[in-house]
Amino acid sequence: MNNEIVSLYESFNKDGLALFTNKLIWFINKHKQIFSKFVFEDTLNEIKKFDAADFYLGTSEDNLEEVISSYSKQMKNATEERICYNVIHLIWDITTFMTQEVCPSCQDENLKIASSVDKTKIYKVCDNCLFTLLDNIFIDRPQEMIPATKEQVNDTEIR
Ligand SMILES: [Zn+2]
Prior knowledge:
Shape: globular
Bound molecules: zinc ion
Order of helices and strands: HHHHHHHEEEEEEH
Radius of gyration: 15 Å
Number of helices: 8
Distance between the termini: 43 Å
Largest sheet: 6 strands, antiparallel
Strand content: 15-25%
Helix content: 40-55%
Number of strands: 6
């Protein structure tokens, strides 16, 4: 598993973001037994069905090239648990849409748009301070969230 994820991460530059994201999703499907030990079942079931084309990719301010290159070094000797969390975290960072709205709580990062696992609720969330809004009301950050799709983001931005 280690060598596989390291070479996947190393392929980041030449593959482009959409193909890279789909490779991460294929990786999860291939190792779904291992991922199921560490990731909530409903969340995992949704992520397994993801297709890069359904998301706005790479909208966060992170320098993905730098981030992924440092992850790839960390993955050489990482445990299965670490690899699973890292891959899920990376998918979140690539596919979760970042708005132009600065977090009103920490004012240090822009809010992102996330969805409940059953896709009935849309949240605005801050990854920095965990501030979370549901229908403009402050709530505790839910345990399970998935990135909002393009369609969900478009609906939110129109409102
Ligand atoms: Zn914040």
